[in-house]
Design a protein that fits this description.
Blueprint: H1 27-32, E1 35-44, E2 47-54, E3 61-81, E4 84-88, E5 95-99, E6 107-131, E7 134-159, E8 177-199, E9 203-213, E10 223-234, E11 247-261, E12 272-275, E13 279-281, E14 284-286, E15 289-293, E16 302-315, E17 320-337, E18 352-371, E19 376-393, E20 414-416, E21 419-422, H2 426-430, E22 443-445, E23 460-462, E24 470-480, E25 483-493, E26 496-498, H3 503-506, H4 515-519, E27 550-552, E28 555-566, H5 569-574, E29 579-594, E30 616-624
Subcellular location: Cell outer membrane
Main location: membrane
InterPro entries: Beta-barrel_TonB_sf, TonB-dep_OMP_SusC/RagA
């Protein structure tokens, strides 16, 4: 699908010659300018050694583990050859072959070699015993891994012939050559343990501890301790509950734990330097070093403390099942960069610091219904979940207006101008606060601070993001004789997607309007429009980040369905097999409701550059001998 001007043609009429559509560029060449080929050769060797030893001198004690060493290599050869378009002489009608504007004049070649290895080792000591009505399980473990990688790259261009695609056949001109390479290594180590206890399956408790070592931090800040504990009470096992015979199972539970996060760039705790800052000394080009980062020796683990309360119940032999969870998480020491500004001429970047605090809380409810007493058996399950984040502290600069602060709002909340309509005519512009050079057909932005001007101080922070606060689903399974049917519905709510930054919507100089954007646009004859005027400009008053282009991403999708049939046993045994099942299934079949359906967007994608979930139909045969 091409989202370009409708008068652009891929080929000259009546020929198979690609046509230049803008300058010497072609629609087709934007798609296939990378003529040539790419060959990827991958070699992987995997080894794993397992062991399990039941220690004979202590009942219930065992020792098991595994070790592996996995080297691998990937060699990539990319040979790019020129792409051409054809120019037509208006006087003679003769077509002349010429290079496409985005292609290469002569062939070029790059060779890339990736080498790496992974070493992994884990060992676990387990103890499992029952003493009367007491059950005890103890686990102690050790884990480590080491990763090494090497990368080499060579490039040459201006191949006079495409017969020999080897680096040595490329140009000998140093300006037509380049090479690069890097190496890295990393290692992790952790100790872990777990104790489980239950009394008659009625009172349950679990304690865990992890001690993790990360290569991301200095030796004095490298280790983090992450404990957790949980407890449960199966109330339905108590004697006083026996009179409530409609309750098959009832349990309450709670947990509290700490988790760690170290997903930051490597070596931020030391001063880093970069090559490439060359100097001319004595008439020669000399490679130099330059400091690239400011070290933070105190950087350490981010921590997330989570508490959870839950309820599990099964009533009337499965006629009603209930699972409910409430949780609250506080992430502290969040690894992020401060908002301080470093002058660009220094060439330095700030390191991450443990400065942020974010809360996240919500609940999940699952209701089920089972009926296995009749010939038609079925199972229903519905779920709904709500989760909301809140920034407690972030190192943000003081805002001129309090409504622009990110603190106190969900993660990812952003600033937008509030669109409140479309200017019908110049008289309305003159009577309203507006952007400089506003024209009829432009978006009306609200003067939030009432100062008579439309500027950055009128941007408001929108609480909804592209992360849904509400998710829900419904599954059903039916069985009748040898037939079975199942399906899944999936949806979300309280989410927004912003699409204003993409030229199919805004219609930049290369773009072509989408129908929903063009149909109700402002024109002199249609001033009561919901969309701004058409424009060939790259930027104008309507390209500002505003709620005009902020769309509701709520939806309900018919996600999956499967119909199957198992041949009767007396039939399959006659033909010498154990089981035969045939089935047909589909995924992403259709959307039941969707606020973007008429706009050409899929609510589960963020813009036009990504494929939406694909509709897939499968036919299957499961045969067991």
């Amino acid at each position: 699908m091409f989202l370009y001007q409708p008068n652009w043609q891929p080929y000259w009429p009546g020929t198979n010659f690609p046509q230049p559509n803008r300058g010497n560029e072609s629609i087709l060449n934007w798609v296939n300018d990378n003529n040539g080929y790419q060959k990827v050769s991958t070699n992987t060797f995997q080894t794993t050694l397992f062991f399990n030893w039941k220690l004979p001198w202590i009942k219930g004690l065992s020792f098991d583990g595994s070790g592996s060493y996995d080297p691998h290599s990937v060699f990539t050869k990319t040979f790019q050859t020129p792409t051409y378009v054809y120019y037509k002489d208006p006087a003679t009608g003769v077509y002349t072959k010429g290079r496409s504007g985005t292609g290469a004049d002569l062939a070029s070649l790059s060779d890339q070699n990736d080498l790496g290895s992974l070493f992994y080792l884990v060992g676990k000591l387990s103890y499992n015993r029952k003493f009367g009505k007491h059950n005890i399980k103890v686990l102690l473990g050790y884990e480590q891994q080491t990763i090494n990688s090497n990368w080499d790259y060579a490039y040459r261009s201006d191949f006079v012939s495409t017969v020999l695609p080897e680096i040595s056949a490329g140009s000998s001109d140093k300006s037509k050559q380049s090479n690069d390479g890097s190496a890295s290594q990393g290692a992790r180590k952790n100790y872990f343990g777990r104790i489980n206890y239950d009394f008659e399956g009625k009172y349950l408790a679990e304690f865990t501890m992890r001690r993790d070592g990360s290569p991301k931090f200095a030796a004095t800040r490298r280790w983090g301790n992450f404990p957790s504990a949980s407890a449960g009470w199966r109330i339905s096992e108590e004697k006083f509950m026996k009179k409530f015979n409609f309750i098959n199972d009832l349990k309450i539970r709670g947990s509290y734990g700490i988790m760690g996060n170290d997903k930051v760039a490597d070596f931020q705790y030391v001063t880093t330097y970069g090559f490439g800052s060359n100097y001319v000394i004595g008439g020669k080009d000399v490679t130099g070093l330059v400091q690239t980062g400011v070290p933070n020796p105190d950087i350490t683990w981010e921590r997330a403390k989570t508490g959870n309360l839950g309820l599990d119940a099964k009533l009337w032999d499965g006629a009603l099942g209930i699972t409910f969870d409430y949780f609250k998480t506080r992430r502290s020491d969040i690894l992020t960069t401060r908002k301080a500004v470093i002058p660009g001429y220094t060439g330095l970047t700030l390191p991450d610091e443990n400065v942020g605090i974010v809360d996240n809380s919500g609940f999940e409810l699952i209701l089920t219904h089972d009926n296995n007493r009749r010939k038609l058996k079925y199972h229903f399950s519905g779920n709904v979940a709500f989760a909301r984040s809140k920034v407690i502290f972030s190192d943000e600069q003081p805002a001129a207006e309090p409504y622009q602060l990110a603190t106190g709002r969900p993660i990812g909340s952003d600033l937008f101008y509030k669109a409140i309509g479309i200017f019908k005519d110049k008289a309305q512009i003159d009577a309203s606060p507006h952007y400089l050079n506003a024209r009829p057909g432009d978006i009306i932005y609200e003067d939030v601070n009432k100062d008579g001007n439309i500027d950055a101080l009128d941007q408001i922070r929108i609480n909804q993001t592209n992360v849904p606060e509400i998710t829900f689903g419904f599954t059903a399974n039916f069985t009748y004789n040898n037939f079975d049917l199942s399906f899944l519905l999936q949806g979300q709510a309280n989410a927004k997607q912003y699409f204003g930054g993409y030229f199919p919507v805004m219609s930049y100089s290369l773009g072509n309007f989408l129908q929903w954007r063009a149909t109700d646009r402002w024109t002199p004859d249609h001033t009561a429009a919901t969309m701004p005027r058409a424009s060939y400009e790259l930027f104008n008053n309507n390209t500002s980040k505003s709620t005009q282009w902020l769309l509701d991403a709520g939806f309900l999708r018919f996600k999956n369905v499967e119909l199957g049939y198992n041949l009767p046993q007396n039939t399959v045994k006659r033909i010498g097999i154990q089981n035969l099942r045939v089935s047909v299934s589909g995924s992403n079949l259709f959307i039941i409701y969707d606020h973007m359906k008429d706009l050409g967007f899929d609510p589960e994608t963020s813009d036009y550059w990504y494929y939406p979930p694909q509709r897939v139909i499968n036919f299957g045969v499961d045969l067991t001998f």
